[in-house]
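Chapter review: from sequence to fold.
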Amino acid sequence: METSDTVAAFSENLMKSQTVEDAWMNLTWAISVHGFDRMMFGLNSLRSDGQPESVVDALILFHGEQAYVDRYLDEGHYYSSPLINWARNNRGALSWLEVVTTLEPQPLTSDRIRFQKLLADFKLFAGYFISLADVDSNSLSVLSLSAREGLTQADADAIWAQHGRNIELMAQLFYLRVRSLPQPGQSRPLTTRQKETLRWIGAGKTAREIAQIMDLTPVTVEKHLQRAREALNVVSTAQAILKATRLNLL
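The token string follows.
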């Protein structure tokens, strides 16, 4: 299939996607056509100090061996990656070679040595990273693309020279689509009442005021808030509002 046909088919299918999973399946198909068959996508909010929120609250999507992503997260590489600072201040693509030569600390720290071993264990030797979120936003989003086994970084660079602009375009369209879709990560869905109470709290109303507006008792309002926190796996109502907003639930 010609690149233009791939982009057209991807765009058409993407707009029909009703879930994050469908959109991700569409993206992995379109990019795999060009020789990058293992991918990881991350989307997370940034704290006031510029660091990402807990990985528990992040949207992580992976196409490849599950054992790799399990080790990647369990060993803490999400937090130690030099890509975080780069992606926070830049938008666009960076080759794996550029990461090694310009971003990796020299000499390598113990964390980065473990990461290099992880890559070697799964034969991940070449690829590209794409930073997708606007640098002035409060989000961090990176798509990692690993070249097919047997390809070198020179091979990946040749592919990128020919198809990189279209791959970046598809990745950016995917990112924008995902931001508009309800995102996975809840233990169970919010009820209509729970959503309404969160909206009123977000608007600055007290539990007593919300009780009058919704014709409920303050105790019932507090129960709705408690169950919303439980459903979203957070410990505070403020966190519940932030997470529900990020998940496009309010």
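Two observations follow directly from the output. The chain has two domains: 3-180, 192-246. The chain has a mean pLDDT of 89.
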